[in-house]
Amino acid sequence: MSQQRDDDLFRESTMTFGQHLEELRGCLVKSALGLAAGFALGLMIGGYVVQFIQQPLSNALGTYYEEETHKRVQDELTPKEVKERVEDEHMLADEVYVDANKLLPELKKAYPGQFKGVEMAPEARRTGASDKERMIHLFLWHDRKDDARLRSKSLSATESFTVYVKASLLVGVLLASPWIFYQVWNFVAAGLYPHERRYIHLYLPFSIGLFLLGAALAFFVVFEPVLKFLLSFNRHLGIDPEPRINEWLGFVLLLPVGFGIGFQLPLVMLFLERIGLFTTRAYAAQWKIAVLVIFVVAAILTPPDPTSMLLLAGSLTLLYFGGILLCKLMPRRTGPFEITRRGQ
């Protein structure tokens, strides 16, 4: 009786190559429909999304120009004045030179009481005075949020529209990700035995949660140190940054997706242990090789900076040992198919 049930179990789980292709086609079509629905919703809020994804870049550029302002005015102002204007009030200074012959008359005209009796220096009034002698060195202060350099640029007429569509697509992917993950896991389940398919429904919510957690970590934690590291090369080389919105959006897409995929590690480990491809003992024995592979993968999935690579590699290393702990806390039970196979 037990052997008959095992044979039926095996026969019901068998699919031809054509059936697998048909299952794949159905999952792809359903995923595409879900993505299209999410994209339609994303078009409604694409403009807000573009503003939102620019915020980490604007903050990093603001910090960069605050540091530049601090270095520029530290010889002209006291440390207290620099701290109040730059660090507390987040003001930026533009360095300008103004012709004294033109500036003072305008000031007297605008503020006659305050500049009464003020005259230019003799060297500036002298006929034939050089441009340097007539020039006054000034700092023009303005609020950081009003600085045009903190906004990313578009270099073509169609680039803004392209960015809007990409941002809407990003929203669509996030909104449709639970449905897409469900279809992916359904396709995987089609090639498993019935007693293994129940794990799909168990892992799906955790898979989605880990993906969103990894993406959130990249956006809210990783972006700032990564941008600070990359902008430090601009300061070192004396090149002012002028980021393009299209390139920045590509960066925004790459890093969170890489983190989200990487955070699937403990579930993948548990799933492979469940279907018998690996054991908890093997995971524990090969941890050194696993950590090496994790660092190599982190270097591939992240930009060329040590901060993001170490954050991803460190997170994945912790998740790897968390996966080992998960396998120990949820040991694989021996199902009827495995008992029969051993009996044979």
Descriptive notes:
The protein has two domains: 2-54 and 152-343, no CATH class; 75-148, no CATH class. The longest helix has 44 residues, at 194-237. It is mostly helical. α9 (194-237) crosses α10. It is built from 15 helices and two strands. The chain has a two-stranded antiparallel sheet. The chain is elongated, with a radius of gyration of 31 Å.
Strand order of the largest sheet: 1-2
**How many domains make up the 3D coordinates?**
2
Element-by-element helix/strand order: HHHHEHHHEHHHHHHHH
The separation of the N and C termini measures 15 Å
Number of helices: 15
Strand content: 5-15%
**Which sheet architecture does the biggest sheet show?**
2 strands, antiparallel
The helix content, as a percent range, equals over 70%
The mean pLDDT is 78
Would you report the number of β strands?
2
Name the poorly predicted regions.
1-13, 335-344
Radius of gyration: 31 Å
- The structure class reads mainly alpha
Overall form: elongated
List keywords for this structure.
344 residues, mainly alpha, two-stranded antiparallel ribbon, 74% helix, disordered N terminus, disordered C terminus
